[in-house]
Write a structure and sequence with these properties.
By secondary structure, this protein is an alpha+beta fold. The chain is 38% helix and 16% strand. It contains 7 helices and 7 strands. It is globular and about 50 Å long. The termini are far apart.
Length: 206
């Protein structure tokens, strides 16, 4: 099979895309494959995907309609239940063993990376550290940022932002944190879900 040849012209590429853009696209697909190969847990199978929200008539109805467009049904809950007033009956899962949304800050600039993990938080964090230390830019946007700009990561200020028990909700939570972030992002990829809902949340919390 003959491989297509891409002729370079004046430091760019004939079809109009520069080298940096092409490299970022290739890294994006390489990272997706790496995450898929590394993930040992599979998404939970559910008859339908639901999001639980507190009921506020002026706000909740609009949010529900937007979520429905993305295949997410809304279940309403009271914000003041007996369960909330009692001590938890289950042992809490240590933060380092949780799945959910996390944030990694750069120590050389204000940029942060926001990501999700279905596995233990510590496992995913070790993968980022390994990628940064060994310049594996195809496995981590954090590594791509530190390599490209010669920056370093402030590992002591890494944050676990949100515990997400159901893997089917991870994309929605990650998209919300990315879309409402107040700092520049290291993320090279678009959030999994793009919706005006997140602009509404950002306005309400501003």
């Amino acid at each position: 099979m003959v491989q297509p040849v891409c002729h370079r012209v004046e430091g760019g590429i004939v079809n109009g895309y520069d080298n940096d853009f092409v490299r970022k696209i290739l890294r994006k697909h390489a990272r997706k494959k790496h995450r898929s190969d590394a993930t040992t847990l599979t998404p939970e199978k559910e008859e339908s995907q639901r999001v639980s929200l507190p009921f506020y008539p002026k706000l909740t109805n609009g949010i529900s309609q937007i979520l429905l467009q993305h295949g997410l049904k809304t279940a309403y809950k009271s914000g003041n239940t007996l369960k909330d007033r009692l001590v938890s009956l289950k042992d809490k899962i240590p933060e380092e063993d949780r799945s959910g949304i996390y944030e990694i800050p750069c120590s050389s600039c204000p940029a942060i990376y926001i990501g999700q993990t279905r596995r233990k938080f510590t496992v995913r964090l070790k993968e980022h550290k390994n990628a940064v230390e060994n310049g594996k830019i195809n496995e981590s946007s954090v590594a791509a940022h530190t390599t490209e700009f010669d920056h370093s990561v402030d590992w002591k200020k890494v944050k676990f932002r949100k515990f997400v028990r159901k893997t089917s909700h991870l994309n929605a939570w990650e998209s919300m944190f990315i879309s409402t972030a107040e700092k520049p992002l290291m993320n090279e990829d678009e959030p999994p879900i793009i919706s005006p809902l997140f602009n509404l949340i950002k306005q309400k919390t501003a």
